[in-house]
């Protein structure tokens, strides 16, 4: 039987969880050097760009969609797609592929600083090179991210740090994150293919109905995306704290949110508000070298505290759910971090 949301008073509240999160980070304060070093690399290191390759791909896709439009698909849908492709083309010219190191499910906190003027730039010449470099950066970035999260998770879960233990388990975290990503992409592709074919056939037979269905599918996809972000918010926390695989982590995250819905929504909303507010501050500061250094260091600490608080929020509630169901918890207690 699900634990009632009203019993959430048995565990620390949102503000207390945030406070305790920073206390835990202060005990392994050296971990903030990882996001600091990563931002310094993005700021002072070389740029890897692929503007020419992306432009060529966008031109081909634009031509293709123009031909599809002539064959009877909804012109407004094709036009919107072409506009999106145009925006991708404009952005790709200045995008530094090294930023992919911090764009993943286990990413390090980053302000993604604008590279200094005059840093070396490497232009990728082929689409194959673009895919290969992007994949390699994603794999490396995810590995660095799980090392960072693994250190914080050990402090949250065990109250101490063992680098030898982390070295053995970090590969499991890494594979779990990658496994979830691959599984999610596969499911999304299958659903998109089925829905796309169905709606496309309807659009050919009855264009007005097809247009309505496209709008309905778009609205449902947006709702599903919001629910996905809410119910799987604690996915990476489940992987590094409970040390479970991708499917069990997704289920565990969804259970925590479902059984503590309003406190979870409040916590998630507060984390997003703090993160967005701090990003505005960091952007304002990063207008000169000194301000950029302050922004990098400040973001590393603030974001690390939020990451620790997220793990604490998840840990306290998943332990309580396990106890309520008569099962031993997957995580151990940390003195002073829980009231159970």
What is the topology, as strand order, of the major beta sheet?
A: 1-2
Oligomer category = single chain
Roughly what is the average pLDDT, rounded to an integer?
86
Strand content: under 5%
SSE order, one letter for each helix or strand: HHEHHEHHHHHHH
Q: Give a short account of the largest sheet.
A: 2 strands, parallel
Q: Decide which structural class fits the backbone.
A: mainly alpha
Can you walk through the features of this model?
The protein is mainly alpha-helical. The chain has one domain (10-50, 95-324). The protein contains 11 helices and 2 strands; from the N terminus they run H-H-E-H-H-E-H-H-H-H-H-H-H. The protein has a two-stranded parallel ribbon. The radius of gyration is 23 Å and the shape is globular. The two termini are 19 Å apart.
